[in-house]
Amino acid sequence: MRIGIVGTESSHVDHIVHHLNVEALGGDARVVALSGGASERNELLCAKGGLERIVEVPTDLLGLVDAVMVTDRDGALHRAHAVPFLEQGLPVFVDKPLACDIADAEAIIAAARAHDAPLTSYSALRALPDTDALAAETAAHGGAEVVAVSGPADPQGPYGGVFFYGIHAVDTALRLAPGPLGDIHVARTPTTLTATTTAGTTRVVVTLVRPTETAQIPFHAMAATRTHLTQRTLTLGDHYLLPGLRTFLHMARTRQLPLSYDALLHPIHLLHELARTPGAPTPRLPK
């Protein structure tokens, strides 16, 4: 399987190229081409992974690849970079977040639906061993009544503000508490944002803490059932991207979606509420 990558500034690309092209952990899947022109960054990636081609613009990948990973740090670029490939029916993974705007997220999904193109997007934290263990332990005790996840995020960050890092805590919370979202309420302090909502019948609390210039809090998740409490600090190992990468490759091979389109939209709606100016209108939630 020939993989093309759009948007190579993220460190995630280094891991993807290493896992697929150096360690050969994706079976026959291999990154064969990057877009963005012959920058020093792209030349280095090609040298490390033995890639075959660098192209100037994303659409130059058409005809060269069987599936595409859109990995720009700034989610505002994802719609323009993902839609041309979805319109050709190619499997597409959009790295977190799917978009920094609800309209963009809906447009990406509409393109996938219209052209029967497999599409998925998620945070790598969603599939960490710690997250898996939390989900399994919670299910074994009857399912979560309350989920609380905390992590760092900077509302003034250069890559879409709270969307860039906030997606990790939000996506983890909604993995532990799947289901349609209720009304979302946000409380703000000078250094924190806290969203409370329901996902299905589960109370969900997500707290984002602005990092300092030199440090940030770790990601942490807690789930309470009616009889049991479990919590973990979420640890990122050397292969933290691998479970999500394998999920994408399975989708590309089978064309079976790992997440529903509503599940892709729910984190964007919650992040929109965390990011928006108080008093601004709230777009409709997907049912």
Structure description:
- The protein has 287 residues and is α/β, with parallel strands linked by helices.
- It contains eight helices and twelve strands.
- The protein has a six-stranded parallel β-sheet with strand order 3-2-1-4-5-6, sandwiched between helices.
- β11 (220-224) and β12 form a beta hairpin.
- α4 (102-114) packs antiparallel against α8 (261-275).
SSE order, as H and E? EHEHEEHEHEHEHEEEEEHH
- How much β-strand is present in the residues? 15-25%
| E-strand count | 12
Largest sheet: number of strands, sense, barrel closure: 6 strands, parallel
Extract low-pLDDT stretches: none
Major sheet: arrangement of strands: 3-2-1-4-5-6
Radius of gyration: 19 Å
Q: Number of helix segments?
A: 8
* Helicity range: 25-40%
Morphology: globular
Mean pLDDT: 95
Helix/strand structural class? alpha/beta
Terminal CA distance reads 35 Å
Keywords:
287 residues; 6-stranded mixed beta sheet; 6-stranded parallel beta sheet; single chain; 8 helices; globular
Task: Map the helices and strands.
Blueprint: E1 2-6, H1 11-22, E2 30-35, H2 40-49, E3 53-55, E4 67-70, H3 78-86, E5 92-95, H4 102-114, E6 119-122, H5 129-140, E7 146-152, H6 162-176, E8 185-188, E9 192-199, E10 202-209, E11 220-224, E12 229-233, H7 242-254, H8 261-275
Parallel strand pairs: 1-2, 1-4, 2-3, 4-5, 5-6, 7-10
Antiparallel strand pairs: 7-11, 8-9, 9-10, 11-12
Helix pairs in contact: 3-4, 4-8, 6-8
